Amino acid sequence: MYLPDAGFEVERTDRYNTGKEEAKIVATRTFGQHEEIRACQAMLASLTKEEEARLERDFSVIFLPKWKCYCLLAGPARFVNHDCNANAEFTRFTNGIFLTAQRDIALGEEITVFYGSNYFGVNNAECMCQSCETNKRGHFAPADGIPP
């Protein structure tokens, strides 16, 4: 991650109203569609039910259907935020994940993945991603449900 050719860096973000310091992954070079971003990876550690309950809203925890359990991400990929129109996706390897670009990613663009359709409430009604803000969906939807 600290290598000049890693292709990304971790920056602070104030997009989310959590009251805590938050981070994001930003591209330090361009990436083409389907290009692997292997330096942005994380190892996976399965969680017990007790650990899962304690870390319920920790965004470093993901559910892996193949393993049928929640796993803690340990590595820079844990800082990748959600977007409903993500530009990357998680790709599995033996004991971890890395990122693969789903579309071209520009220099300076935040690298994001799609966490799931109901990760932020039913139909992501509580989602605060950039796409939801731009399209007035999720957390940014009008109270009456009718788009402007």
From TrEMBL:
GO cellular-component term (any): nucleus
A Pfam match: SET
Organism: Caulochytrium protostelioides
A GO term, aspect molecular function: histone H4K20 methyltransferase activity
Domain of life according to the entry: Eukaryota
InterPro entries for the chain: SET_dom (IPR001214), SET_dom_sf (IPR046341), Suv4-20/Set9 (IPR039977)
Protein name: SET domain-containing protein
Domain called SET: residue spans: 6-116
